[in-house]
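Standup, Tuesday
Yesterday: got the pipeline producing structure tokens again.
Today: sanity-check two examples.
Blockers: none.

Example 1:
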Amino acid sequence: MDSVRSPEWPVAPLGGVAANSATARYGMSPGTGPIVGRAGPPPTAPPPYQPSSGAGSIPPTGKPAAPPIPVKILVAGGFGVGKTTTVGAISEIAPLTTEAEMTTAGIGVDDPGARSTKTTTTVAMDFGCVTIDRSLKLYLFGTPGQTRFGFMWDDLARGALGALVVVDSARLDDCFPAIDFFERAGLPFVVGVNAFDGRLALELGEIRWALAIGDHVPLVQFDARDRLSVRDALLVVLDRALDRATRDRRA
């Protein structure tokens, strides 16, 4: 979290705190200098995000604050692309994971890639949450990557407003089922290319062409291990979901 330094408050004007000091009222000898103060409370910094509906405004004094609006987001993609890492990097609670040890039975079936040191696999889902501000809270559901667990995707997608499709640029074939699923479901999604080892195997323009996705689908590069990088990718998903909801309301 970025630190914020308080501003330098000016010396109180005549008639303020300094004029009401013991020296001014009782004629005592002055000390080291006038009392420095401020005439009023410091200004309140605005929240990071304020929806146009006013749902994030500060409630009147004496009334309890409204709970944040829950928003369900899916984190999907192929096997071993970084979905569990993505959820764990941003979640403000200890993420719920359903990891199981990979065994020899999965050899030739589950291929995490030559660069991967992965020894476990998600067999149900990952779950985490993060508060955006006082009005919005994201609930993240990570899907299993293997094809044999595809029957769970329909249930996990129920009620979701958007999805982040995590992609390994060296194994683009693994993300095709996820992209096809969200295109058929009509669910807004963002393609997030996970930069393994801090670099990509292909340029973003080449990845867009290979995935055959239109310009209306955001394509971003991020690091699944970095909290701020994951945050930025999820904010793109949220913006895409809000844009879809606004257009549907006007239609």
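Example 2:
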Amino acid sequence: MFFTLLRQWVLTPITHYRLFHNFVRQDFFAQFSASVGGLLWLFMTPLIHIIIYAFVFAYIFQVRPLEEFGETRFIVFMMIGYLPWFAFAESIGKSTSLLLEKAPLITKVVFPVQIIPVVGTLVPYMTHVIGFLILLLYLIFEGYFNWLWIALPLVFFLQFLFTMGLVAILSALCVFLRDLQQLVALGIMVWFFLTPIIYPISMVSDESVRNLFLLNPMHSFVNFYRELILLDNFSLVNFEIIVVVSLLSYLVGGWVFMKIKLAFGDVL
């Protein structure tokens, strides 16, 4: 039973490809329906974020370049961590309402419900990868490119798997525990400040406290992106943590979702 549920979870986008494709297309373009700018917002939104943060930190706070990252400007340092985090945070934030919003569909139509958390994770990642690509193109022109960048799609995919597992668990639990919606919103804010996105980990002077950051998977993702892009360094420790937590989250989250999905109809 355990492996049967896992197989169904893993193969869902393949065995139900047409349905999966339709869900993704519908949810993706629904973001821009009745919008004058349409798909242009895919490019405008990340550019506006980058411009605003650059102005605030470079001209208002006048944050100096970071020596440990090769005198990299702070805005570049921050956006390398912030853009992948943004995809993660939006997926988690929307996870609590994924099944609740589709309650009429779940209770009236027989279909593989496990498609919903997969689509609910994929669409935000499809949206925010545009901003990350814009930043990478800028860094290429700035001379940061190195051949280790070929590992970036793999790391981004592992982050996607890590997120999908959490989305599966949270979306399933919110069917039974509606208060999780408020707790998740608060948790995302706390998690953001516990992840070195707007500050370098070197600011934490206590080494024992710095080691505790290794318990935060998003720290490993963010740090790995920065070392790979800015320092031409493949951190084996961070990569090992990323692989383990991503696969565990994806498989455990999928198994939990598949285990309890039959009860959704009774509660919704």
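Quick observation on example 2: The chain has 13 helices and no strands. The chain has a mean pLDDT of 87.
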